[in-house]
Protein: Methylase
Organism: Klebsiella pneumoniae
Amino acid sequence: MGYRHECAYILAKGRPRLPQNPLPDVLGWKYSGNRHHPTEKPVTSLQPLIESFTHPNAIVLDPFAGSGSTCVAALQSGRRYIGIELLEQYHRAGQQRLAAVQRAMQQGAANDDWFMPEAA
């Protein structure tokens, strides 16, 4: 059956932005098949959290970046990001993913449904 729930932490420095409307305690998301990383999160689930708790152009830090879902969500939300990943294969996958999203955003068509081959 696999994982059914996962805990997420939002930590802030200074005076973080607080949501105008309460967020649910549990966020659901559709399983994507984990195309890039075994614990990949959908960008569409991360974006509302980033937009609710950060100001535009703020820095979002993900110390366990994996394939970069949080960084993609930050980028698409108008935030800057710092992603740290220990394993080279996921670091490389994250770099490729972010580069593709940046190109798509420059062309005005960014979304999370683009195709990227599995990292070697």
User: Anything to note?
Assistant: The longest strand covers residues 59-62. Residues 43-106 form one domain. The longest helix spans residues 88-106. DSSP finds three helices and two strands in the chain.
